[in-house]
Amino acid sequence: MARERRASQHTVFAYARDVAAFTRFLQDYRGEEPSVGMLGSLSTAEFRAYVSARSRTGLARTSTARGLSSLRNLYRWLDREGIVSNPALDALRTPKIPKAVPKAMTESEAMETLEAARTLYEDPWLARRDMALFTLLYGCGLRLGEALALNRGDVPKGSVLRILGKGRKERLVPVLPVVRSALEEYLRLCPVQSTDPTLPLFIGARGGRLNPGVVQRQMRKVREHLGLSEQATPHALRHSFATHLLANGGDLRTIQELLGHASLSTTQRYTRVDADGLARLHARTHPRARIDTEPEPTDVK
């Protein structure tokens, strides 16, 4: 997965945990040490028993679905390498996963979040760091991991930022002047002054690359300060970026490219968030709607 699919380290670890959980289940269920031969002899009923066992532990359907995906990837690899083959898993259906609706902030909440981010630290450079990071997430629609992976050499000199996203896929994201300004102000105040392009862009108080946990903690403080719901997270800034673009007339294909989604169906989730905005856009732009709303001609005597 890491070499061929370019999966992230987090994804690889998650799949490894799933396979480990499966082998532990087999040891308890069969009462013997799992082996390659056992993997080839498992029946569909035994795979189904594994799914049921995971469900009884209270795991969400998404976790169960990922567990099955991990097993299918493992069996495909075993079959491709000529180690073992077992078609029994193919007869098992993946649990239906409810489609999650992205949790976006309102435009005013997003702007208040950016402003509040620079008021929660007494040290000016830390305050400017958080404001620059949150402005980047909201202004460019980045994932938190993408933003924290940036180095000094990645800071855009012009109006475009090159991002290495999921699956190590590159995309170009336009950078607004307000985003460039926030980054420049943070770098001006940053105590680590260096031209080394390999240094992390966002650093912690001790000088290392900024930890995601620190960002999550700061967002919790912002939530409490502004009285926002628990749905206001760093990732919600990315959702807000897409939702607000769509509400203001952005098209799905462009938003898909900006977010780095491999599938348009992933981007289409945002249409359920802003159904009212889409209705207004439809009424404003559709030729039939414009004709129907034109005033009736009056008789001239």
Question: What does this entry look like structurally?
Answer:
With 301 residues, this protein is mostly helical. It folds into two domains: 9-91, no CATH class; 107-280, Intergrase catalytic core (hpI Integrase, Chain A), CATH 1.10.443. The chain is 56% helix and 3% strand. The chain is built from 15 helices and two strands. Strand 1 (160-164) and strand 2 form a beta hairpin. Helix 1 packs across helix 4, helix 5 packs antiparallel against helix 6 and helix 6 (124-140) packs across helix 10 (234-247). The model has no long low-confidence stretch (mean pLDDT 83). Belongs to the 'phage' integrase family. XerC subfamily.
Fold blueprint:
Blueprint: H1 9-30, H2 36-41, H3 44-56, H4 61-80, H5 107-117, H6 124-140, H7 144-148, E1 160-164, E2 170-174, H8 177-189, H9 212-226, H10 234-247, H11 252-259, H12 264-267, H13 270-273, H14 275-285, H15 287-293
Antiparallel strand pairs: 1-2
Defining traits:
301 residues, mainly alpha, hpI Integrase, Chain A, two-stranded antiparallel ribbon, 15 helices, 2 strands, 56% helix
Q: What value does the average pLDDT take? A: 83
Main beta-sheet strand count, sense and barrel state:
2 strands, antiparallel
Estimated share of beta-strand residues: under 5%
The assigned CATH architecture of the largest domain is Orthogonal Bundle
- CATH topology name of the largest domain, in short, is hpI Integrase, Chain A
General form: globular
